[in-house]
Amino acid sequence: MRVRMSLARQLFVLQLAVIVFLVGTGALLAFLDARRASEVGAGRRVMTLAAGLARVPAVREAMTEPDPSAVLQPLAESVRTATDTDFVVFMAPDRTRYSHPVPERIGQRFIGTVAPSLAGGTVTETYEGTLGPSVRAVVPITEDGEVIGLLSIGILQREIGKELLQRVPVLLAVSSGALGLAALGSLFISRRLSRQTLGLGPAEITRIYEQHDAVLHAVAEGLLIVDLDGKLALANDEARRLLDLPTDAEGKTVAELALDEPLGSMLTEQAQVSDELIVYRDRVLVVNEERAEKDGRRLGTVTTLRDHTELEELSGELDSARGFAEALRAQAHESANRLHTVVTLIELGQPERAVELATVELASAQQLADQVVGAVAEPTLAAVLLGKSAQAHEKGVELAITDDTDVGDVAIDSRDLVTLVGNLIDNAIDAALAAPPPRRVTVTARSVDGGLWLTVTDTGTGVDAARVEEMFTRGFSTKPEGAPHGRGLGLALVKQIITRYGGSVDVTSDNGTTFDVELPPRDGGAR
């Protein structure tokens, strides 16, 4: 069964193997270097001894004696013992030994290189003689410039090795200490890495990353992660699309990204937000923000974004349709009452009064329909105006279409037209209802080359000039709580549509509020 090793443990094993290799190699190189240094030192030592001993007058005198060995052998042994060398050999120019640590070998030929010394030079070499491999020096013994003999002093390599072995415990101690310290450091790094990687192995980390990356690309919601420093740590594809983030957004602070309000403040303050509806540029977003924590330690915030734009537009259309239905039910109920009244008047023998009542109601309804149909050729806008007129009438508000209203074909999507006009009139009706009578909403609409100029005025109490911008950017609302699909989005959606079509809106407040909306014509011409 294969044992799973975490990334930290694998790294520790690899580091330990590398450390052992490096320390072992270093120790071996240090040993070899010490051995070479010992050999070089031994060569210098024997050369210095040989050069000095060859200049002693007694040595030169003994070389001319009939039996040089009688003088040189005792001298050689005393020097060898005093200098802790392994051999001191005096010899004739023809290699005949006059001294040797083994007396039986006196008179035999010296084994080694002597040619440079016979020429007046010196020799330092490692050579295997009768006693074994040794580091030796060979120097000439001269008299009046003539080589009368040779002197060789050497140290056996095994003796050099013994001296070197005395240094091995120190070398091993230093190497072991270095290995131990390196292993402890590697263990510390391994444990720290284990905490950071949660004890996961490379395969698990790779699998988690692949799954994480796949989820980030596939999830339908926008995802933002902001760290404690206010920097954007992560943004998935959907978040980049919804917020139009640049490719290098990650790593920048929220302030540097210049996000529109109120989203920028939400991310900066890192507060908890639950299902908050906001308008961001041309989109309606549902925002959820939660604090990210691990083992009681704050890591930042995780924010999710859902695109609610189409749903809000459909909700607006549904509200309009519901309003139309309620108006039709009210009209049907009122028509039934009037019809019952007409029938009763006839039964009471007052047909003239019955005809008068029916004629007045029919003329009033027909007049409004004729005015709207005659002035507004755009069927969607005409339907919205008639429906809102019925709604206003039901609520006790008079909706007036000015005589200079003249709308032909407009280059505006029907859904956008319903949202734009419907929300402005609904807002005006609510404002008029909040004020004392008379309650009136006036609408003027004109079109040129597909562009639309719309003015909606109410008889409400007006709006504080300081809050005009807030009405569009933060979902301003004076309505009560409890709207089924969010509050205060009507004017925000209006602003969204105006921005999308490159138009403008002007709000004035004087004994009521007036919204002047201008959507440019197709060719960008002036009004």
What is the H level of CATH, i.e. the homologous superfamily of the largest domain?
A: Histidine kinase-like ATPase, C-terminal domain
The CATH level-2 architecture of the largest domain is identified as 2-Layer Sandwich
Topology pattern, helix = H, strand = E? HHHEHEEEHHHEEHHHEEEHHHEHEEHHEE
List how many beta strands DSSP finds: 14
User: Percent of residues in beta strands?
Assistant: 15-25%
Based on helices, strands and strand pairing, what is the structural class?
Answer: alpha+beta
Instruction: Tell me the overall shape.
Output: rod-shaped
Rounded average pLDDT: 77
Q: What is the class of the largest domain in the CATH system?
A: Alpha Beta
Structure at a glance:
GO terms for molecular function: ATP binding. The two termini are 83 Å apart. Strand 11 (440-448) and strand 12 form a beta hairpin.
Any overview of this molecule?
The chain is an alpha+beta fold. The protein folds into three domains: 9-165, Beta-Lactamase; 219-307, Beta-Lactamase; 311-519, Heat Shock Protein 90 (2-Layer Sandwich), CATH 3.30.565.10. Helix content is 50%, strand content 21%. It has 16 helices and 14 strands. The chain has a five-stranded antiparallel sheet, sandwiched between helices. A hairpin with a 2-residue loop joins strand 8 (283-294) and strand 9. Helix 13 runs parallel beside helix 14. The relative contact order is 0.06.
